[in-house]
Fold these 3 entries.
Entry 1:
Amino acid sequence: MSELRSQYTVSELNTQIRHLLENSLSDIWVTGEISNFHHHPSSGHMYFTLKDGRGEMRCVMFRGANQFLKFMPNEGMEVRVYGSVTIYEQRGQVQFKVSKMEPAGLGDLFKAFEALKLSLASEGLFDSEHKKTIPKFPSTIGVVTSSSGAALRDILNVLERRAPHVNVIVRSAKVQGNGSALDISKAIIEFNEFKNVDIIIVGRGGGSIEDLWAFNEEMVARSYFESTIPIVSAVGHETDFTIADFVADFRAPTPSAAAEIACIPSEIIHSQFSNLEQNLIRNLLGKIEQIWVRIDYLENRINLQQPHKKIQRQIEKLKQYHQRILNGISLSFSHLNGKVIAGEKQLINLGPKQVMDRGYSIAYNQLGEIIRNSSDIKIDETFTLKTGHGSLDAQKISNHSTP
Amino acid sequence: MTKKEKNPSFEFSLDRLESLVNQMESGEATLEQSLEWFEEGMGLINSCQNQLKEAEQKVQSLIKNNDGSFILKDSE
């Protein structure tokens, strides 16, 4: 760039002006209302004037830049344009070369917001049946936020204090300004490719509607919807609602609250297990108690039957039977004995002694045989005569003829 | 790879414990069965409590390489 002189040709002057402008008024935002808007059909370039009631500036937005516009600028619209002041040297015309344009009037911003919201809602992106449940026991939590913001610090503090058993993976992203919508969407997509997180927290602190605008962009909303990993959104202040918040599976009022929602405190998990431990022990003891009760009950019933007494009675009965048997035997015995004695008497009565005591004698021959017939003895044969008291030897004299 | 693979998850453990306790409470079980369930339950409880006790939170950064692979960088 050449130093300022005091002598110029016209073209030299215009060139000098251009250098001066491009070195000082480049890459700036300008706000104003659009008028005299022309969109050339052949070249695709847009030409318009920005004004604010007291001044005007000619603007050009070439096709290369305006093809990315998400809305159609029109007459009367309040916009913010980003670009550089320059001079069209041949005409000596100062103009503003626009590289980016956004609706600036609150009205226009809201219109864009409402339009997108309606269209996504009708597609079903906000429907509750598409919302994924936040897992109760994540083992790893993913965080998308600015690495330099307070949101990250708040989230990490809560997670460290509350759930030290849960690991954290941070994918830092730009959360406002140029390229933020793209970076946030990429972050969500990357976590879904990486897979090993159970929840994603997307957080950023408060800001103006423009600061939060990335979260009203369609690509961010779609990346939330496509995500198979549940997303907890914590963007802006409690009262700020962005389109992404509606698509998220859960919206938290602050980044700290999002961290709290994403995990159950370890003390609560610990006490849940302690309670179950108590239950288990109690149930086992109860089971054992039950069995003892049954045993006691049965023992009582047995005792009610007084088995020892029963046994005693049985023993008594046995003794009685025994005695009766013995009695019976001795009765029979005396009975028999009596019979025997009687029999003996009879026997004795029937015996020869009684008969012989009455006077009868028994004659035996020499062989010792009893003589029943007188002819059994021959004359002069000797024989024996046995009386009731003593025996004698005899001899047959003759036959006696008395019948 | 992670603790998740070595130990049953909290989710699984809690569900299993609920059903064990229910089964035991129903009173139908034999003593042997109750003892078995008790042992299983205590095992689950101990492994989960250990996971909580031994907790060492790791905070890492996710970085995607140009070739599409991921690396995890430990933070401070």
Entry 2:
Amino acid sequence: MDKIKSIEELRKLREHAKQSLKTRQGEAKVKVLISMGTVGIAAGARDVLMAIIDELEKRNFTDAQIIERGSLGLDLEEPVVAIDMGGELIYYGKVTPEMARTIVAQHIINGQIVSDWVIAKGNKK
Amino acid sequence: MKIFRIHALICAGAQCLAAGGNGFEDALKDELKKHDLDEEVSLVETGCMGACQLGPLLVVYPEGVMYIKVKPEDAKEIVEEHFLKGRPVRRLMWKGEKAELPNLSEIPFFAKQTKIVLRNCGIINPEDIDEYIAQDGYEALSKALFEMTPQDVVQVMKDSGLRGRGGAGFPTGLKWELAFKQISDQKYIICNADEGDPGAYMDRSVLEGDPHSVLEGMAIAGYATGASKGYIYVRAEYPLAVKRLEVAIKQAKEAGLLGKNILGSSFSFDIELRMGAGAFVCGEETALINSIEGNRGEPKKKPPFPVVKGLFGKPTVINNVETLANVPAVIEKGSKFLRQFGTEKSPGTKVFALAGKVNITGLVEVPLGTPLRTIVFDIGGGVPEGHSFKAAQTGGPSGGVIPAKHLDVPMDYENLPALGTIMGSGGLIVMDEKSCMVDVAKFFLKFTVDESCGKCVPCREGTKQMLEILEHISNGKGEKGDIEKLEKMGNLIKLTSLCGLGQTAPNPVLSTIRYFRDEYEEHINNKSCPSNICKIEGGKNERKVAHRQTA
């Protein structure tokens, strides 16, 4: 990244970053957001992440973006996986690798929310 | 295997058949034949889907459309509209699915929280500076650099009422002002990320989820006090936090948000990481300074305070992670921002790590002054079924217990010391009636005995003696007068210890004696443990299992 030399450049970069976050959502149909703090990883988030990547690859679904994030605070429900398909965010809790495969098949591929495992939906910020 | 274009699943459970499912299936088969679709559509009879009051049910894949309460006469419409033309029949579809999901901010765990420090945790990608900038990151730093003088920044911090979140609650603005007034060629900012309380992990979560907010807070502190160098003293046991901090510092330097002439101004600020030495006492500020200098992590006498003579003998501001994460929000939104939350003397929010015997564990950020009841019962969902709330430990091994009768006391920097405990860094351990208070006090005291650095006598010897008395009591060898002895020693250690570790070490013992004196007396006089935790030899409820002879 180039050095930001003034406040105007920072603001310009912010507008650009906001835009690119938006367009990135437009580019990739699906965003998969995984809580990868220490709590999440200890609860098995890495296995879930690998399962999701593997399942997406197996189904040849390339229009997805996988993003690691920090912890949401709701540790009881870790690993937490949020799926963003353009509308609201859907948060799944206590996800196992097997559940992750089902979520990929049902939610990401077929667009059906697996409502039994959903903690809540959330607004994008 | 034959490939079908559409899979139609018909529920053939007893309930659906009774509701007329069978007639529908026949009608559907007829319709499919009529339109030559029986090669393209696979009809599958499934077992009960569980939504019996909505039956008979038909689920159509790949779309996953669910039709409810279908009648034989609906078959024609479904086949002609959906199977043939691809237009699902909205009239028959189940609509309830989406509306039933609650919003994240509506579920009880989040509904009563106010997120300032954790504003970006779990929202942004911590390893991408662009995402932080998109969330108005580094706006506060640029505002401070170009629109405010260092005095303005200090004044805003003073007016905001922000108090140190590391535990003691010293006003941050005042600390900065003292450092600002020092005349020195070099000043330092230290971020204390040596989070040692068992059960507390809010600092780790901030560093892992939103490292840039801490960097920005440090840079603002540097601008306000005239420091050009910052250190983050982070626990080496937090590898992920260390890695993300490294990434964040590198990105900020590349972007020119750290380093020489930040954003083209004359202000330069650089940050270095220092790994913690692995001792609890290194979280004490003078010991921390010693550790960064490369010396043994032992505390020093205060005064001189670090703001006068700190790291390498230069004026130094030491702030906790959570405090620094508050700074960008305060500078960006003004001195009145924190005053919207919390109490008159304790504005803003505090993050608590909710753990122990509670239904929903996790990190919660609430306005200061929120009653314990709200945190444990409304946010944490209460104590698990069948058990009752007995007490909660705040402040980890330096704090004390809050018993059930004080559940409604507002949690802030004034009320907690009055109850004999401290805010601490925010660990909150909930205990139910199965916890023995003597055992709890013993556990926390054992921790401080292990972690005492050994420099001063009261802490090194006194806490050891207290622990021995506690062990006697819990083994059923307690004597009359032990409680008074504990109280006397505890108060003496508090008064005479060198640093914060020793000055707070007796707190768990003193506060459990204050609220649960009857339990101590029960151990001593009747040689029994009411909660059946302590192994009292020869006592009423001695654990027979341990002595069972093998056959």
Entry 3:
Amino acid sequence: MFLRAFGLILIALLFSGAAVAQTPTTLTVIAHDSFNYSEEVMAAFTEETGIAVEVLRLGDAGSLVNQAILSRENPLGDVLYGVDNTFLSRALEEDLFTPYQSPALADVPEAFQLDPEFRVTPVDYGDVCLNYDAAYFAANDLPLPESLADLTDPAYRGLLAVQNPATSSPGLAFLMATIAVFGEDGDTTYLDYWAELVANDVYISQDWTDTYYGQFSGSAGSEGDRPLIVSYASSPPAEIFFADPQPETAPTGAIVTDDTCFRQIEFAGILAGTQNQAAAEQFMDFLLSVEFQEDMPLQMFVFPVNTNAALPDVFTDYAQIPENPIILDPEVIDAHRESWIQAWTEAVLR
Amino acid sequence: MLSVQAITKHYGKPVLRRVSLEVSEGEIVCILGPSGCGKSTLLRIIAGLERADDGEILIEGVSMEGVPVHERGFGFMFQDFALFPHMNVSDNVRYGLRMRHLPKVQQEHLVEDALRLVGMRGFERRDVTSLSGGEKQRVALARSLAPTPRLLMLDEPLGSLDASLRWEVLKELKRILKESGVTTLYVTHDQSEAFSIGDRIAVMNAGRFEAIDAPLALYRSPQTVFTAQFLGLHNVLTSSDYTNIPDDLPALDADYILIHPDGIQLDPKGDITGRIRENNVWEGHYGSIIVTLTPEISLRVNMGRPTLLGVDDTVRLTIDPAYVVPLSP
Amino acid sequence: MDRSGTPLNMVRANNHRFAGRRAAGILLAALPILFLAVFFFYPLLSILQISLIPDGTLDLSGFAELITSDYYRRVFFFTVQQAVLSTVITLAMALPAAFVFARFEFPGKSLLLSLATLPFVLPTVVVAAAFGALIGEHGVINSVIVSLFGLSDVPIQLEGTVAIILIAHAFYNYSVALRIIGSYWATLSPRMDEAARVLGAHGWRLWWTIRLPALRPAILAAAALVFIFTFTSFGVVLILGGIRFATLEVEIFNQARNLFNLNMAAALSLVQIGFMFIVMLIYTRLSRAATADIQAARAVARKPRTKGENALVVITVGVMMVFQFAPLLALIWRSFTVGDQGFTTRYYSALSTNPRGSVLFAPPLEAIGNSVSIALITTVLAVVLGMLTAYLLARRDSWAARALDAVFMLPLATSAVTLGFGFIIALDEPPLNLRASPLMIPLAHTLVALPFVVRSILPGLRSISPNIRGAAAVMGASPFTVWRTIDLPLISRGVIVGAVFAFTISMGEFGASLFIARPDTPTIPVVIFRLLGQPGAGNYGQALAMSVILMGVCAISFITIERLRKLGMGEF
């Protein structure tokens, strides 16, 4: 009796799962777990266009791209949001997207438009920069490091925490920054630089969360004792934004001097094989619209690519944008990612 | 009432070979045999706990083929009692009554009756795990009797009791079975149990019945060599040895002959001379001796009272021809 | 006696029904196999096929690298070594406690037992924070020692050591061992102990000659689970062990997620699965010859009488307090004191506000609702399938049954990323278009929980004598009634333990969900991870507050499940 009832329920559940069919006006967006926006802005989009947006989340940026590639024959959605320049070339090589040139790209600087074929459209960017504990540097009367090379100075011994590039996206960004600055050949390669960092007692932690909350001394919430870490240029305004009450002076800051930050640009693209091309195009335009672009900074702590979008106060007051961040060609990144990480792992961890 | 017809069972090798048995209403039949002879398997097949490869079980003429164990309405008492460890005494006894959906009040009465029958009133709330072996045995018996089964099967019910308890319990059990009037199959490897409780005894060996008869008839005339030996009747002679006994014994056309130990007397005028090899005294007041006649022939003689003769003394014997029985191999 | 009850009319069955019942039995037995085939083997084989046979030809370059590389050999040996050590330490800690819980009655016992499962649900990041607050460089214990003895150096420095990996593994798995061994122990007759004492066994001889052999099935079951769990450890090794340690699981994640080197990931996955399969085969062989005296299925626990017994209870409770509950208390304390404002409940109240109007916002009640619903579906699925599996495995003993037993453990030995990628490519077409179904997460959780449920039920099930079932059947109980009135009460402890594990695993699980496409159903762990992914004291404080809520919800659930069991036992 009980078992029969259970069987019926199970079958019903299975079929209800299978029956999540898509109505024509629903657009499915696959995205990484951090994709966030305000309900209000999305509601306005739906009202205006009649397109309801359903978001499927597939883990972090890396697993999002991998799963999109694996499901290429039978895509999970119509639009993908969240591939960044470190994974871009892998996604482009696999022909995941159909090209679409949004008219809104007119307001986006060319420097962000990394794909000349418009298969992907830049939506936002962020810079991986060193963050520091302002109180520590003030109390110890220590000048802030101004370049990556400064970090090997004994004055900063035991102060720095970074992430493992094999498991963390800012960790990989920082590794690529060192590669761009020190190069792979010559007298001092990036690996030599890393050897010096290790000699200077760098702490390598697993992911951003552990670095920021476990190792950093600057954040009001953190448990650590390292005043210098790899984080984002947007972390200091976030630190202020999420403090209650808001402090008078910023407890942390980002170092944005030339050739210390690595720029990550996030893209969206229409997945090849979509049945909702027109709706997908409207959604792409929406991502670049001033409404959405101005909504992003406080939702995801990234910067808008649309030059017409105004930044919120907490960003204009506390965020610094590096003038000359390091940008690597996505194809170079994808071609070397594995060998760089392996070389790094060999040199630093063993 | 019960008819077992040519039951055959293999577990790799044959365990039961075309076994047949008829049991009438109210009868107690003991299945007696050494361990591993197939008697428990037969019981489990009758109960429906196992399926026969071939043959049929009939109850009052109706085949049990396809009738699942729980619809046969039998009672079964396992050697390890198989009491339900998560229930107390009265819930154990009540179990079969609940399965018949009897009214609560009637259940209470029948549990009470069954526990009274086995002398376990007052133990109702006791945890079965806290009972002694004898108490468990009584509860198991009450549990199998309470639903008034058409057929009660007891598988070595005294097997796990120590010897001192056995006789007491055995007498009790006989009284209870007679009082309830239930048709019973009683499996044991112990001949004294079988003889004291069975209306008939079916001796089983290697998957076959060797002999089925009333206890006394079986004792007097065990029919086969195996039965005679299993019953402790050791004076089994081959026909050639038998003819060598110098006495006026009847000529028998059989391969084996039993000279029943009860039919031999010490008699100073007897024609047979022999020498005492052993003199055994049982419980101080009866005994048996073993007398060697020729190097090949020794006979056991049961004695009403112990003899004072010693080992190696020479004695004379007479044999009562009525106690000379032919046996099949 | 009344003979009117003789059911002559019952003798009217036929072969038809017999065959029908057989078919139903086979169908029930096939259900767990079908489940495993569809939701485990089909996705696994699909991803292995794509990875190892990318263009129609077999590519074994990953294996070639595995065999020749020094690095992978070291990873493999480290994985085995830490798993063995973790298992031994966990069992050594849990055994005396299991004895105390099985044999003695003391105030707060069932509460303590319920709460002991809490560490199991906490996300690694949160546990790391709790450990940090307790034994980190600036943690409570170090601060106390430093100030007491005026030391200049911190005495306990465990960060980034193997020791802290082992401690954390023991912390996580203590309750697994305690529950499985304790529930089995409670069904063993204390008479055996008493008999052994009469014969002169005492002290360690009593343990060595009587208790440990009697407990063998449960100890082996617990050891197998702890071994698998620590063998495939991911978060603990990554976050607490720091960067120098890598297990096979970490390498698989790295190859599949970061490098998208599916060939290498598949090779590593197969090594991991293959090794675990061999270990499980050995385990099932060892646990086969286990019979037990399960006569005393209830009420064998009593109040401690002697001084020694009292001390034993006190020490056990004390160890649990320090080892299990101190990190949790540290966590609760931190959730009220993060930031510079002293003691505050602001992080709890902030959980219910959505100042940015974010779509990702989930108020605590919604997150709790999602978590509990998923956990309940998981529990029902895992318990029903687990019970059927346990019967399938308990029934016959052959090499096939033992292999099947090991097979049912395999989902635990399979990396979440491998399986998640498998789901994406395998379950993409009707009738199995489940990739984006809300059922996918409970199904994935069920795969992980199933081995726990099976292991929890199997030892008890195997020790039910067939005669007990036979006795019930002869007295008129149909197979289902036998199961309901005999089996179920006798295995209820194991079932409850399994249910608690299934519920717990689902409540705290996050890793597997990471690789499953899912619509927005924010569970408690998801909310915690989202909060931890953003900078600022507010986020961190809210994450800790949410972790405390997770603990609270689980604690209430465990206590409820325990209550339900007691009610259920009373009925029959």
